[in-house]
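User: I'm putting together a teaching handout on how sequence relates to shape, and I'd like one worked example. Could you take Chemosensory protein from Gryllus longicercus, show the sequence you're using, and then write out its predicted structure as tokens right after it?

Assistant: Happy to. First the sequence, then the structure tokens directly below it.
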Amino acid sequence: MNRGLAFALALAALLAVALAGPAPDDKYTDKWDNIDLDEILANDRLRNKYLECLLADNDNHCTPDGKELRKNLPDAINNDCARCTDKQKSGTEKVLKFLREKKKDDYEKLLAKWDPEEVYRKRQEAENSS
């Protein structure tokens, strides 16, 4: 599993793979797992709306899935996406790769906001060096 998946959850929700609280099996809900991430990544307006939500100081302008993401993101980052579904994990990989390669400034802003202690970055560096 890519260590970047935990942080990518935020980005996945950015692309509408949002988390809506734990399901009975202690996984995050799969309610938004079938959203077309490619469409969101390719659409500046949609992608920027999720970025705005994730970078804001509060969730006042977030969609319901964005609000749930903001609520669950710290847990996902700190626990290496342990409660993510397989679809959420693959979606986060896709989103992270897109942002790292095509929207580096947005990627760095999200890391600064959601990974200030560099939990994700340190995991990613450790994985890449092994």
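A couple of points you could highlight for students: The CA atoms of residues 99 and 105 lie 8 Å apart. The chain has a mean pLDDT of 81.
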